[in-house]
Amino acid sequence: MPGGNSTIVAQLAGLVADLGRHATETTVGLHELADSGARHVPGCQYAGITLAHKDKKVTTAAATHRYPMVLDSIQNQLAEGPCLAAAWEHCMMRVDDLKVDRRWPRYQQCALEQTPIRSILSYELLVDGAAMAALSFYADAPRAFGDESLELGGIFATHVALAWSVMRRQDQFSSALATRDTIGQAKGVVMERFNLDADEAFELLTRLSQQSNIKVIDIARALIESEHPLKQRPRA
């Protein structure tokens, strides 16, 4: 690996470590990683992360420009394209010149009509049971990506997948803590209102959830809001 690339990889590893260390919110972290990829992969002008859900819906998790979002919208409408192929077929997709590439004819036509993009590199990111994803690099010029671009693009994809996994776990942990705190507050409300101990209060919340088919956390939020209703704004 060329010396310059080694420096980029070291910087990327440091960025991933910082995202994990500072418990960066997933959406923010993905945008930082996509921006870093757009700046460092040779030939790249734009980068984006595409989510392909099980229901076939396609969304953009992060993008450095509107063009990746436009291309994701096209793939969502047509259910074809290089990002989807990378995610679904678990491989890297390379488009040297979209004007002559015939693998996705409907996507090709719409992409050329709506964007100037001609070169695309797409890498599978992860499979988590709910959605698949791809990291893609784009350029307006044909044949913009050489061997060095392919190598660095793959390295970025590996690091993005790792960072995403870490950030998702952090988000899930933060969400679990918030849920626990909310249910704890609701238990306090029930204990005070009905003169129950903590176990009895939680049992009551659970029973209400089962009988109403409403999640405990939703019942807890409703109870807390009933204790601290928002003040109604005066009419204009």
Structural key phrases:
GAF-like_dom_sf, five-stranded antiparallel sheet, Beta-Lactamase, CheY-like_superfamily, 2 domains, disordered C terminus, Arc Repressor Mutant, subunit A, 15% strand, alpha+beta, 236 residues, single chain, 8 helices, RNA binding
What would your notes on this structure say?
Helix 2 runs antiparallel to helix 6. This protein has 2 domains: 3-173, GAF domain (Beta-Lactamase), CATH 3.30.450; 174-227, Winged helix-like DNA-binding domain superfamily/Winged helix DNA-binding domain (Arc Repressor Mutant, subunit A), CATH 1.10.10. The protein is elongated. It is an alpha+beta fold. Strands 2-1-5-4-3 form a 5-stranded antiparallel beta sheet, sandwiched between helices. It has helices spanning 3-21, 26-40, 66-78, 82-89, 105-114, 147-194, 198-212, 216-227, and strands at 46-53, 58-63, 93-95, 119-127, 131-139.
